[in-house]
Write a structure and sequence with these properties.
The protein is of the alpha/beta class and 182 residues long. It is built from 5 helices and 7 strands; from the N terminus they run H-E-E-E-H-E-H-E-H-E-E-H. A 7-stranded mixed sheet has the order 2-1-5-4-3-6-7. Strand 1 and strand 2 form a beta hairpin. 25% of the residues are buried.
Length: 182
């Protein structure tokens, strides 16, 4: 009799354990399926394509590392006059808000690496500058002109994009829209 009770307890425990495991993994699978169903693209309302690039400090970062943060993704080059005018406004936004700025330099178009380093120092840029060696991100985002800017929300969804120079007031206004909706 005791053996039967033990066997029943073990079987019930196993079934309960299986039910709990199934419940948990079904929830994880559902979340994964919802994420997989999100549409990736370059238009407003789509999930920004992920990439991994190296910073000027030698660290590797992925755009997806910044989920749960508002990100301004800016493609630029030192020789680009509108980029030169826009960079102080990007730095000001970075200093005055909690936005994460990823400035992707089109290094393949630069004359030399020192131009980027000198530009960053001359403009006291403190946000990460990513080097697009091999034009991975440039190709992924179909960059045809610089500056090109994407504002990405905490879920990785593009909320704003601009082709050409934008000023501080526009940056701040668009940031506040995204911040206010989250």
């Amino acid at each position: 009799m005791v053996k039967r009770i033990i066997i029943c307890v073990v079987l019930l425990g196993g079934m309960l354990g299986y039910a709990v495991f199934s419940f948990i993994t079904d929830g994880e699978n559902e979340a994964r399926n919802q994420e997989e169903q999100q549409e990736f693209g370059l238009e407003v309302g789509k999930v920004a394509p992920d990439f991994e690039l190296q910073t000027m400090k030698g660290e590797f970062v992925q755009l997806s590392d910044y989920r749960d943060e508002i990100v301004m993704l800016n493609f630029w080059a030192t020789w680009c006059v509108p980029c030169q005018r826009e960079m102080p406004d990007l730095e000001k936004l970075y200093q005055n808000t909690d936005i994460k700025i990823l400035a992707v330099n089109l290094i393949e178009t630069e004359t030399k690496y020192d131009d980027i380093l000198n530009f960053a120092e001359d403009n006291s840029l403190t946000f990460p500058i990513l080097l697009d060696n091999g034009e991975q991100a440039t190709d992924l985002y179909h960059i045809l002109s610089v500056p090109t800017t994407y504002l990405i929300d905490e879920k990785g969804v593009i909320q704003y994009r601009a082709f050409g120079q934008i000023d501080y007031d526009t940056m701040l206004k668009e940031y506040k829209k995204v911040k206010g909706s989250s």
